[in-house]
Amino acid sequence: MSREQDRTTHYKEGSLSLAGTVMLGTGVMIGAGIFALTGQMAQMTGALFPLAFLAAAVIVSFSAYSYIKISNAWPSAGGIGMYLHKAYGNRLPTAFNALLMYFSMVIAQSFLARTFGAYTMQLFGGDESGRMVPVLGVSLIIAAFLVNLLSNRLIQTVASFIGILKIGGILIFGIVGVWLADSIAINISSPGEKGSVGNFLGATALGILAFKGFTTITNSGSEIKDPHRNVGRAIVISIAACVVIYGLVGFAVASNLSLAEIIETRDYSLAAAARPALGQYAVWFTVAIAMMATAGGILASIFAVSRMLAMLTEMKLVPHRHFGMPGSIQKHTLVYTVVLGVFLTAFFDLTRIAALGIVFYLIMDIAIHWGVLRYLRKDINANPWVPAIAIFLDLIALGGFVWVKLNSDPFVIGVAVGTMIVIAIAEQIFLKRTAGIEPPDDEQSQTHHQH
């Protein structure tokens, strides 16, 4: 058991500087979101999509408050599972919402994998058959799984290196794209098929997916120098940096492509926007950045997600079966995570994967804010109106998104609701069965982190 516990807390206390933490946060945030969501958001709300990114940033800024307050109070408590446990204890809301977070993170991996496939195929003139994108996506997940089996240190080094290249490349794309734009005016006169408030809210909800990586920073609380001050600072700086970068990219895409073109090329809109501005070399450059960004994102994400599921297993919140596999629980959760990611990548397209991710994430996010408002407010000295506003904004974005999807793709909302019902029932049965078994004491796990 001690070896397994050691695996879950292998970082050194105080090993991450503020700058390093910001790099970590922005590295995760600027993943597939900016490469694939731009086109999907334009499809929903037309040429107003850069404003939807801004609206998403406002919502995420209110959301960040709860995470900052909890991680300031308990910087060593790693992961969303611990935050939920602080608020709701060893009960269904903790297990249910932690699993929603887990699934939204696995969904994000599939999103990265499909985006990798969509951009890579631009080197070969696109994917007419529709078969190569999932094949490439599945191959990437399996490759990332094999690297994850090799070395934790290698994962961190590769992910950090790719993060720097990716952010630099996207900044170059945004600046050059705006510089060479045909015109500075963005055509707002044709805001998509249905330029309704619901569509704008739906696009805003999708935009939240491009920012939700900030939660990674809170998971690293015990590794950050002076965490009581620097966790909050890192989150604020990361969100601000992403607003600037997304704004630049959105403007570059909107300036170089017509709305119809953005929607038509929604899975690879950055590569398409590079072509008229800079020609074929720019397409290769953009595809290379997208491939690096998605591959690096998956490498880091698979490790983080399997670690979270291992932690939930140790807290006796989810059932665990070895299925005859050797090795630690974290190795087993790595296998589960990869199998689930491969399934989603093979059978769901980018639009549907994003839809599932945002529904699960927003419901979990609301549960975090409610936990702060109802149970933790005094413990963490939180101002009640900020999480209350965050809940209100989340509900508005989620409502708009569900409304759009019920009209355009009700199947995906059915899958989301069905999955949540299955999770809730299965967890309720599991928790009743294990009611007499106490999870590891929260305070003990705290001191374990600190020593």
From TrEMBL:
Coiled coil: none
Superkingdom of origin organism: Bacteria
Residues spanning the membrane: 21-42, 48-68, 92-112, 132-151, 158-180, 200-219, 231-254, 281-310, 331-348, 354-373, 385-404, 410-431
Location(s), subcellular: Membrane
Keywords linked to the UniProt accession: Membrane, Transmembrane, Transmembrane helix
InterPro entries listed in its UniProt record: AA/rel_permease1, AminoAcid_Transporter
Pfam family, one: AA_permease_2
Cellular component, GO annotation: membrane
Main location: membrane
One of the record's GO molecular function terms: L-amino acid transmembrane transporter activity
Recorded topology in the membrane: Multi-pass membrane protein
Name of the featured protein: Amino acid/polyamine/organocation transporter, APC superfamily
Species: Marinobacter daqiaonensis
